[in-house]
Amino acid sequence: MADKPVKISTGGVKKGRNEGEKAVTANRLSDGITVYLYDDGSWQDALRGAAVFEGDDALAALEQATAQETIVVGPYLMDVVQDGDTVVPAGRALLRETIRSAGPTIKSNYSRTEAL
Amino acid sequence: MLLKLENETLARVNAEAAQDIPDFGVWQAQEPRGTAVRIANDINLAAEEFDPSGLELIVLDFPKYKDGRAYTQARTLRECYGFEGDIRAAGDVLRDQVLFMARCGFTSFELADGVLERSGGVEGFEKSLKDFDLFYQPGVKGTALWRLRGLSGATEKERLAAAGIKG
Amino acid sequence: MYRYDEFDAKIVADRVAQFRGQVARRVEGDITEDEFKPLRLMNGVYLQLHAYMLRIAIPYGTLNAAQLRKLAFIARTYDKNFGHITTRQNIQFNWPALTDIPDILDHLAEVEMHAIQTSGNCIRNVTSDQFAGAGADELEDPRPWCEIIRQWSTFHPEFSFLPRKFKIAVTAAPEDRAAVRVHDIGLHMKKNEAGEVGFEVLVGGGLGRTPYIGQVIREFLPKDHLLSYLEAILRVYNSLGRRDNIYKARIKILVNELGAEAFRDMVEAEWAVMDKSRIDLPGDEIERIHAYFAAPDFEDDLDTGDFDSAQKSDKGFARWVRHNVRAHKQPGYASVTISLKPTSMAPGDITSEQMELIADIAQTHCFDEVRTTHEQNLVLPHVKKADLHAIYKKLAPYGLGSSNAGLVSDIIACPGLDYCNLANTRSIPLAQRIQKRFEDLDRQENIGELKIKISGCINACGHHHVGHIGILGVDKKGEEFYQVTLGGSAAEDASIGEIVGRGLSTDEVVDAIENLISFYLGERSDGERFVDTYRRLGPDPFKEALYVA
């Protein structure tokens, strides 16, 4: 099951291989804000405390997220690494996911206070 | 599950499902030809020397609701072939497209399982049919706004009445 | 400008009510995201990287002060106090909540605005010449025809689920400021041998993955038949346009697969059998719409006041006049381009305070009219020359006095990876670095007209194919690289730029642009723009110059 292509962030969101540590991310339906799945099943807007999954656990988490259509839009798996207590983006889509979690790189007052 | 549009209202009716109606090739080979046919999106009627006389029902397909070819087919059947029978939308038929369909000449709507339930029932479909009562352009159904504007000297109330709106 | 009657107002109000219901059904779970997406797109609502984005229609780029003030209010109340002018003359907000959008649309309806068909596979906002009604070179004001197309295309029952999006532009001047040759349909108003004004009809232009210059399928279409002819084109496209591959679904692919002649024959055949009297507007309705676009009450024999003396005493003003002020058809008046490209801002961004200032100026000095441009700037179309210095002094403290219209720092850039869900690379930071490199105004002026256009992915929203210098961002294993194209143009000499050399890293790309410009400065003959020198010398010497250390 872990080898099956799955919705994954590789620059854009495409089918990719489910290898390594993953977080589940999406946009909140009501306001579109970028959110991450936490261990308690809630969706929060800071990546740093997101739940980290591997293999079949990641697929199961994504499947559960996909069923939550009235809460979030377009969930997918993103590559992450755990840096101490903090979860940070990793992999092929590093720049995209860094911008998603921290806000645009161009003007400080458009950035998200929760991250960075 | 079939809804039929008559006199501005929708009613549930029982009828043969679209999948049981002969497709264009089968219908053409019939001797004599039947009264109902299902026409796929990619059939160019102009190239087929199509003659709809004798037909009572033409089923047009929405493989996905985003695939809009059947709108042109329906309008062509009404406006170029003068077809006056029932034109049925089948496939991915949803409440939010039903007004566009009606304006292009569709008169019945075959819904997939569960669609009616999550669309607020027949009332939900009827509500969407009435989302707009003024139209900028002519359709098979619905007068173009410029024709109403052309009623020179008419009061606003008269013009709204001409558009079928209760002032 | 066009004003709503009670019918227009009711249609827009009904639209907001419809969308409010659709949002509620989506939140309740009665419609899936897949079903909702086209509905929200046709109301201008995208989901981007960080939030929803709402794109509001500015039909053919014409705005009044009340509308601009309402946009400022929306930016302040529902967004982060700024908006972004797009290459389709629209404005978009980057941070609204979905659940607020029906309220935002209600506010817009109060000032006769909407977000209808600013996205989706339908006929989009019709664009035009930002100097319409002001330029001395135009045959007539093209905007009444844009409004006629706007009304005809709004909720068109047959053409709301086309194979792909559909863009129409109209211009009436020989100098094409509306890029009609790179539109799905371009309408260029021209005179026939009998001296009547009609439309030259171009079809199948477009940028994106596969850029094409539009082809003429009708040399002269009488004005009265505009709508029936458009209907015939759209009907052929809706029936035959490809639906199996999103990248091959635009009309340009159909036209090029069939050949322009075969396509034209199909359109003409469709048009021949059509009951045109049902579709084409009668003369009195055409007149009714034209009446809204009557020229303002220009004054005759105007004094130019301090216009000449101020240019001697205020060097900044003189420079602004040289680049941002354009001749007007009415003596004593001029048109002003307000640059939204100051160094270090996102090209096309405008704050609420800036919108309100411009609204005040438009009301006081410009017959209550403002235009947006496809180059992401604003225009005050009709101002007295005598007022120009005062206007400049009001604009400059708000960061709106940049004297760079048409120069190297007047860059078109898509939002790129800072906002966009489709982008591969960032565009705005690169635009800002190029602006910084060429910050010196004397240097910019010496370089002359140079159109740099930057897209953050192959979808080409930044129009890189038609930049004198085009820059396309590409992702190479997670790193940003930039591919340079040269020699493109979106104007009457429309051409698609040629790719020169390999992709450049973020570190290399600004130096490479500077190398190209230095080479041009060394080679140009009198009066040649960058693109002229490129066309004379061809790509090879420029290719070599790209990598000079």
From the N-terminal CA to the C-terminal CA of chain B, the straight-line distance is 35 Å
- Strands in their spatial order, largest beta sheet of chain B: 2-1-6-5-4-3
Radius of gyration of chain A: 13 Å
CATH architecture name of the largest domain in chain B = Alpha-Beta Barrel
H/E series of chain B: EEHEEHEHEHHH
Poorly predicted residue ranges of chain A: none
Tell me how many strands of chain B there are. 6
Q: Going across the biggest sheet of chain A, name each strand in turn.
A: 5-4-3-6-7
How would you sum up this structure, described in words?
Chain B: This is DUF934 domain-containing protein. The complex is a heterotrimer of chains A (116), B (167) and C (549). By secondary structure, chain A is an alpha+beta fold. Chain A has helices at 55-66, 94-102; strands at residues 6-10, 12-16, 22-28, 34-37, 43-44, 72-83, 86-89. Chain A has one domain (6-110). The longest helix of chain A is centred in the middle third of the chain and has 12 residues, at 55-66. With 167 residues, chain B is an alpha/beta fold. Chain B is built from 6 helices and 6 strands, in the order ββαββαβαβααα. In chain B, strand 1 (2-6) and strand 2 form a beta hairpin. With 549 residues, chain C is of the alpha+beta class. Chain C has 4 domains: 6-110, Sulfite Reductase Hemoprotein, domain 2, CATH 3.90.480; 142-291, Sulfite Reductase Hemoprotein, domain 1 (2-Layer Sandwich), CATH 3.30.413.10; 307-398, Sulfite Reductase Hemoprotein, domain 2; 412-546, Sulfite Reductase Hemoprotein, domain 1, CATH 3.30.413. Chain C is globular, with a radius of gyration of 23 Å. The relative contact order of chain C is 0.09. The B-C interface holds B 44, 65-69, 71-73, 75-76, 79-80, 94, 96-97, 99-101, 103-104, 118-120, 127-128, 131-139, 142, 144-146, 148-150, 152, 156, 159-160, 163 and C 5-7, 10-11, 14-15, 17-18, 21-22, 30-31, 35, 38-39, 121, 151-152, 154-162, 227, 235, 238-239, 243, 273, 275, 278-279, 281-282, 284-285, 288.
